[in-house]
Amino acid sequence: MIAWVMYDIQENKPRTKVAKLCKQAGLYRVQKSVFLGTLTAHEKDTLELQIEEEIDEDTDSVYIFPMSKKELRETVLIGQAFDKKLVTDEVRELFY
Which tens digits make up the pLDDT trace of 5-52? Predict the structure, then answer.
């Protein structure tokens, strides 16, 4: 499945750790707090558990959205949708 991970994490240390976990899971950074990539159901569950261990559930929020390729292609991008310094060609290929 394709998965989006988006987060708003207050403290730097857990925010950095969550970004590292997303990268280790094979996701690509789309924006500073947004990752996109392909995960198996098991990898998604593992990432979810790892993130839960790092964040403060009283102050932080993390969204993991599974999405099909068809739904991804229907995604609307408006304005400067990507931080071009962060996005790889592999992420761009998911959209086109």
Answer: 999 999 999 999 999 999 999 999 988 999 999 999 999 999 999 999
DSSP single-letter state for residue 65: E
Q: Tell me how crowded residue 18 is: count the other CB atoms within 10 A of its CB.
A: 22
Give the amino acid at 15.
R
Residues 23-47 as b/e (b if ≥16 CB within 10 A, e otherwise) read: eebebbbbeebbbbbebeeebbeeb
3-state helix, strand, coil in the chain (%, to 5): 40, 25, 35
Q: Residue 30 has what pLDDT?
A: 87
